[in-house]
Amino acid sequence: MIVISVLIVAGLVFYRIHTNKEKEEKQNGPAGPRTAAKVYGKVIQGQPFSDFLSLSGAIEADEQIEIHTEISGIVESINFSEGGRVSQGQVLLRINDAELQAQLAQAQTRNNLAAENERRAKLLLEKEAISQEEYDIASADFRTAQSQIQLIRAQLSKTVVKAPFSGTIGLRNISKGSYVTPTLNIAQLVNTNRLKVSFSIPEKYASKVRVNNQIKFNVQGDSSVYTARIYATEPAVEANTRTLLVKAMTSSPSGRLIPGTFANIVFPLETLDDGLLVPAEALIPVQNGKKLFVMRNGLASEVMVETGARTEADVLITSGIQPGDTVLTSGVMSLRNNVPVQVNLR
């Protein structure tokens, strides 16, 4: 009975194992070598690559001011055309100076009298007819009269407003006969012969900034690419934004660059003779960075990489692969490490 029982149990175990094996074969097919996954790949070779930063900036005039008067008064004449060119020293407007001219005439009369009194006092002093103190008083009156004339002439010079530099003058906010005060903005004067490009660069790249380095930029609505040369930077990084303010100089002979507009700036970092560029779709983001697959001995091999700059289609690999490696570029999300692959090179 014991022998029969053992035989029955052994038969049941064999039957169970055989049944499970048949099920597995039906589900997975007969045992055999794994089928190689068909993927696309690319042999990576070093190639020239220019690294750069894309930044936003603004166009500024080389010189730009608001025109104001130094004194209050009635505008007597306007000597410029809105939107026109003016030269350095050109008279822009005149303020009525009738009152000041009358004060000047009065001061000159007093000065003449004081001069005569000083002359007579000097003669009397030489004859000892008056004291030194009396002569000093006459002399002081004469010098005071002269100072009054200088003060009025200084006020008269302020009735004429001149252009401090050559440039283009904007729209005026006054008319002939207007009463102006020093707080009133008459118009803007802008020197557009030369223009400044102002932008901020992250502190990580601040050491890359060099005076006389050249940058390229464009503006909205204009397909032209312009160049500018860096001429100055702030001496310190801005604490709140952690950026360094940089200014470059350019010119606009055609007049198409307008101060105040935004600029899209390309700031060059470095040029590599043998940069390793891989298609962006080959990279797989992971928790600790990025990885990709390369083919080694017919198998997909997982490699952690470090990346740098990128173009529209490719990414610069700074470490992790070598020239001549075959990087897998399609179907990488479903690949596993050491899976056989059949690669079609692109």
From TrEMBL:
Similarity remark: Belongs to the membrane fusion protein (MFP) (TC 8.A.1) family.
Could you tell me which residue ranges the Multidrug resistance protein MdtA-like alpha-helical hairpin domain spans? Answer: 98-155
Q: In the UniProt record, which is one GO cellular component term?
A: efflux pump complex
Q: Please give the InterPro entries that the UniProt record associates with this protein.
A: Beta-barrel_RND_2, MdtA-like_BSH, MdtA-like_C, MdtA-like_HH, RND_pump_MFP
Organism of provenance = Sphingobacterium lactis
Designated name of the protein: Membrane fusion protein, multidrug efflux system
- Which Pfam families does the record cross-reference, listed alphabetically? Beta-barrel_RND_2, BSH_RND, HH_MFP_RND, RND-MFP_C
Q: Where in the cell is it found?
A: Cell envelope
Note the superkingdom of the native organism: Bacteria
As one GO molecular function, the record gives: efflux transmembrane transporter activity
Span of domain Multidrug resistance protein MdtA-like barrel-sandwich hybrid: 63-182
